[in-house]
Amino acid sequence: MTTTPTIGVLALQGDVREHLVALAAADALARPVRRPEELAEVDGLVIPGGESTTMSKLAVVFGMLEPLRERVRAGMPVYGTCAGMIMLADKLLDGREDQETLGGIDMIVRRNAFGRQNESFEAAVEMAGIDGGPVEGVFIRAPWVESVGAAADVIATYDGHTVAVRQGNVLATSFHPELTGDHRVHALFVEMVRAAR
């Protein structure tokens, strides 16, 4: 099936615009998603980077938490970057006590593992499933994955830490490919959405 998939970007908080641009460049119809009825209209969803505790609270306020969990459980393709990776973790380290996640990947994620804002950096990351050499990863207060369960596949590491994971229709990266102008990770996700339809 070659029809253009409709992919939402969770637009509660974070770098929404950059993902909309990257998805459009990767041949998807991209739109912001803030409400359950908008979520129901998309074939896949990107959860952007931002502040995971704020995103978690806003998901509750906007009535999005349970609809998001239901769509993830039902197999909707989802891609999370940075805070989005945290949101997709089944378990979280260094989170706030009241912080909610959606789950979707059998992994334990540590928040802000690579350090504070002033310790942000860029690095070349070799990523399984991406042709054409390493992707440029932008790490901003980035998490890393402490461990994964049997169902999850580690698809990239950096400096000995897991920074990209895939489990079925769910993809997560510690870093922000949407900030680089290289749309290969988004293209991979668009293909995942096409394959799931």
Descriptive report:
The chain is an alpha/beta fold and 197 residues long. Helix content is 26%, strand content 31%. It contains 6 helices and 12 strands. It has a 7-stranded mixed sheet. The model has no long low-confidence stretch (mean pLDDT 93).
- Secondary structure class reads alpha/beta
Largest sheet: 7 strands, mixed
Please give the alpha-carbon distance between the first and last residues: 8 Å
Total of DSSP H or I helical runs spanning 4+ residues: 6
Quote the beta fraction: 25-35%
The total count of strands amounts to: 12
Overall, the morphology is globular
Order of helices and strands: EHEHEHHEHEEEEEEEEH
Q: Compute the gyration radius: what is it?
A: 15 Å
Let me know the average pLDDT. 93
Give the spatial strand order of the biggest sheet: 2-1-3-4-12-11-10
Helical amount among residues, as a percent range? Answer: 25-40%
Topology:
Layout: E1 6-10, H1 16-25, E2 29-33, H2 36-39, E3 44-47, H3 52-61, H4 65-73, E4 78-81, H5 83-87, E5 89-93, E6 105-110, E7 121-125, E8 135-139, E9 144-148, E10 153-158, E11 161-167, E12 170-173, H6 184-196
Parallel strand pairs: 1-2, 1-3, 3-4, 4-12, 5-6
Antiparallel strand pairs: 6-9, 7-8, 10-11, 11-12
In short:
This protein is α/β, with parallel strands linked by helices.
What descriptors fit this protein?
197 residues; alpha/beta; seven-stranded mixed β-sheet; 6 helices; 26% helix
